[in-house]
Specification:
By secondary structure, the protein is an alpha/beta fold. The protein has two domains: about 10-175, Rossmann fold; about 195-305, 2-Layer Sandwich (GMP Synthetase, Chain A, domain 3), CATH 3.30.300. About 35% of the residues lie in helices and about 20% in strands. Strands 2-3-1-4-5-6 form a six-stranded mixed sheet, sandwiched between helices. It has a three-stranded mixed sheet with strand order 7-8-9. Helix 4 links the parallel strand 5 and strand 6 (about 155-160). It is globular and about 60 Å long. The protein binds guanosine-5'-triphosphate. Its main location: cytoplasm.
């Protein structure tokens, strides 16, 4: 039986620079694709809660948008999300990617993360040096030593989120900083975000994967209708109607492609993933809309949930 004396449960925020592997780590920890992963940076725009369970603890992970210099209002809203998420956390996972050059990791970023973000919040910090598959054992040790000596986190460990190396040790490292409490969520629950959120994230992922240059960054995905009808009538598929919002007409043409071919290809890939995620058939309708400069407009950002 779980009692507050034997069980711990709390919030762990995952922070780091864009492309550090935060989403990959979250998906690996939960053994499920909850957060979108692409080789491009800044794919994560909103906070995603993933819930990890074992016999001794429940860790509610909060993924955050990557920390970077804000270029417009959307970036500022993303950084605001990161700041708010840090405040909610009992413990912080600071994800620092290893790099294969003379520095082993980005020292300048790590200094910025600690000095401008983490020291102000005064939360316990576990440093995770991710992408350690890119470094030798010796280099990993050197990097961890340099990090520990400079910023004195509660703990520092090297993992590879991509390959799953030492990811299980992270939960052990976090446990001492979680309050003793009963689980807040039932065991079968992997996230508090609704299905429609994951559906829009799947479309965003496909856009990031298929289109180049500024297109993914100028795009927002809005679910206009999510009609769950398959469960009641198995001859029907669930209907998902969705708008892809871009900033310019030229972007709309690129998204649609010649005779609709690009949109069709992207829609097919998204629908296949959605069906796998939801475990039921989906009819997906996509519309492309132009909303000039949506990333700079407060009202529109708000209506998109930022
Ligand atoms: N070699 C290596 N690559 C990794 C590892 N973890 C993540 N990656 C890659 O790094 C890229 C970025 O991963 P994400 O998980 O999307 O990174 P993120 O920090 O969530 O990115 P943002 O959405 O920009 O905040 C992807 O191409 C991943 O496959 C790792 O342990 N080793």
């Amino acid at each position: 039986m779980t009692t507050p004396q034997t069980f711990c449960c709390g919030y762990a925020a995952i922070v780091g620079p864009p492309n550090a592997g935060k989403s990959t780590l979250l998906n690996r920890l939960l053994d499920q694709k909850l957060s979108i992963v692409t080789p491009k940076s800044q794919t994560t725009r909103k906070k995603i809660t993933g819930i990890y369970h074992n016999e001794e603890c429940q860790v509610i992970f909060l993924d955050t948008p990557g920390i970077m210099d804000p270029a417009h209002l959307l970036h500022e809203a993303m950084l605001h999300t990161t700041r708010e998420t840090l405040r909610e956390a009992d413990v912080v996972v600071a994800l620092i990617p290893a790099v294969r050059n003379d520095e082993l990791f980005d020292r300048e970023f790590a200094a910025h993360l600690f000095e401008e973000w983490l020291q102000k919040e005064k939360k316990p910090v576990v440093i995770v040096l991710n992408k350690c598959d890119m470094l030798s054992k010796q280099e990993q040790k050197e990097a961890l030593r340099a990090i520990s000596e400079t910023w004195k986190p509660e703990k520092a460990l090297a993992v590879s989120a991509l390959h799953g190396t030492r990811v299980d040790r992270l939960v052990e490292a976090l446990k001492p900083y979680l309050p003793m409490d009963v689980p807040l969520y039932p065991e079968e629950m992997l996230s508090t975000a609704p299905e429609r959120f994951f559906v829009s994230e799947i479309i965003r992922e496909k856009i990031f994967l298929q289109y180049g240059k500024e297109i993914p960054y100028s795009t927002e995905v809005v679910i206009d209708e999510f009609r769950e009808q398959h469960e009641e009538d198995p001859s029907q598929k669930d209907l998902i109607r969705c708008s892809i919002v871009v900033e310019r007409e030229t972007q709309k043409h690129i998204i649609i492609g010649r005779k609709g071919s690009a949109l069709k290809k992207m829609g097919r890939a998204a629908r296949e993933d959605m069906e796998e995620f939801l475990g039921r058939p989906v009819f997906l309708e996509l519309f492309v809309k132009v909303r000039p400069n949506w990333r700079k407009k407060k009202g529109l950002l708000k209506s998109y949930g930022y």
